[in-house]
Write a structure and sequence with these properties.
This is DUF1775 domain-containing protein. The protein is an alpha+beta fold. The protein is about 30% helix and about 30% strand.
Length: about 240
C-alpha cells in the first residue's frame, strides 16, 4: 500500500496537534498543594487540588494524611462535600504553650463527595494549619488517597531532589526560614510578600517535572506540525506542476 504525500502531511499535522494538546494535560495530572506561607512557625492555608479521577472514574473521597509534627488542622467546608477530622493519639503528650496538655492530633482529613466529582473537573480542598517552628529546611509530605467509584489512586511516593519524579508523588511543602512573628506576620507587611514568594517557589518546584514534560510534548507537537505543513505545501506544488 502506498501513502501519498498529502496523507502523510495530514497525519503529521494531526500528530502535532495531539502532542500539543497533551502538554497541558500532562502538566495537570497530579494532586498538587499550594501554600500561602512556608516560613517555619507560620500560619498557612494549604490548598490541595485535583482535576482528574481514577482511570476516568469519578472521585468520591479525598483523604489527606497530616504529618506527625502538625497537631491541629482546620479544614475549609466545601460545597458538595462533607468533611471529617480523624484524630490519632500522640505517642508523647505535648504542651500547647498555654499550660494545657495535648494527647491527640489530627491525623487525617477526609472529604467525601455528596455527588461524585467527574473525571476532568477540578476541585480544591483548603486546610488551615501552623507549620512547625523547628522545621526549617524540612520537606513535609501530605499523602493523598483518592478514592473513586471504580478504583483508587494513592499519591504517597516521595519526591527526591535530583531524581526523576515518581509516578504517584505525594504533595509536599518545603519549610523555609521563619520571618516575622510566630504566626507568619510582621508590622511592616513584608512577611506577606515573602511568604507569597515562598509559596510560588514551592509550587514551581513541585510542578517542575510536569512543566518539563509539557514543554517537551508541546515542542514536539510544533515540530511535527511544521513538518506536516512543509510536506503539504510541497505536495500541492508538485500537483500544480
Amino acid at each position: 500500500m502506498k501513502f501519498t504525500t498529502p496523507l502523510i502531511a495530514t497525519s503529521a499535522l494531526a500528530t502535532g496537534v495531539l502532542l500539543a494538546l497533551a502538554a497541558p494535560l500532562a502538566a495537570s495530572a497530579h494532586v498538587s498543594v499550594t501554600p500561602d506561607a512556608t516560613g517555619a512557625g507560620a500560619s498557612t492555608v494549604l490548598t490541595f487540588s485535583t482535576a482528574h479521577g481514577c482511570e476516568c472514574s469519578s472521585t468520591t473521597t479525598m483523604t489527606i494524611d497530616i504529618p506527625e509534627s502538625i497537631t491541629s488542622v482546620s479544614p475549609t467546608v466545601n460545597p458538595g462535600w462533607t468533611v471529617e477530622k480523624v484524630a490519632v493519639d500522640l505517642a508523647t503528650p505535648i504542651d500547647d504553650g498555654h499550660g494545657n496538655e495535648i494527647t491527640t492530633r489530627v491525623g487525617q482529613i477526609t472529604y467525601s463527595a455528596t455527588t461524585p466529582l467527574p473525571d476532568g473537573f477540578r476541585d480544591t480542598f483548603a486546610l488551615s494549619l501552623q507549620l512547625p517552628a523547628d522545621a526549617e529546611g524540612e520537606t513535609l509530605e501530605f499523602p493523598v488517597l483518592q478514592t473513586c467509584e471504580m478504583g483508587e489512586t494513592n499519591w504517597n511516593e516521595t519526591t527526591v531532589d535530583g531524581e526523576d519524579e515518581p509516578a504517584l508523588p505525594a504533595p509536599f511543602v518545603t519549610v523555609t526560614a521563619a520571618t516575622g512573628d510566630a504566626h507568619g506576620h510582621n508590622d511592616a507587611g513584608a512577611e506577606t510578600v515573602a511568604t507569597h514568594d515562598d509559596a510560588a517557589a514551592v509550587t514551581a518546584t513541585s510542578a517542575s517535572a510536569d512543566d518539563v514534560l509539557a514543554r517537551v510534548l508541546g515542542a514536539g507537537g510544533l515540530v511535527v506540525g511544521a513538518v506536516g505543513i512543509v510536506l503539504a505545501v510541497t505536495a500541492r506544488r508538485k500537483q500544480s506542476a
